[in-house]
Design a protein that fits this description.
The chain has about 120 residues and is an all-alpha fold. The chain is built from 5 helices and no strands. The longest helix has 30 residues.
Length: about 120
């Protein structure tokens, strides 16, 4: 007969010990996006409806180019972390692993494509 305490039965199961770090990272990125996105929308909105040369001229300025790059990178990182948390909460098994890989890959592909397009426009 085995005598196990509740603590011994629970050891090795449960928390991955990364919850606080992930929560803090999501909080920091959401605060950063709260400032970045409205600024970017205002500056990007001023280029809407203009011809190609005016848009290229606007994005060739370092401030708008750097702001756009920050919105892409921070936004996609925030998306990947949030979607990963959601998938980990609701999916199980192999589907969970495949969905996490897909979401992280999708975020990096979108960020890389956006940065490539931004570099092509800015340079």
């Amino acid at each position: 007969m085995r005598y196990l305490t509740a603590r011994k039965r629970a050891e090795g199961r449960g928390a991955g010990h990364t919850g606080t770090a992930r929560h803090w990272s999501m909080t920091v990125s959401s605060v950063a996006l709260a400032f970045l996105v409205p600024t970017w929308v205002y500056l990007f909105g001023s280029t809407l409806g203009q011809d190609h040369a005016a848009v290229v001229r606007a994005f060739s300025h370092p401030f708008l180019a750097i702001l756009t790059a920050l919105v892409l990178v921070v936004g996609m990182r925030h998306f990947a972390m949030g979607a990963t948390m959601m998938i980990e909460d609701y999916a199980r098994g192999t589907a969970r692993k495949m969905l996490v890989i897909f979401v992280i890959s999708l975020a990096w592909v979108i960020a890389a494509t956006g940065l490539f397009a931004l570099i092509k426009i800015a340079l």
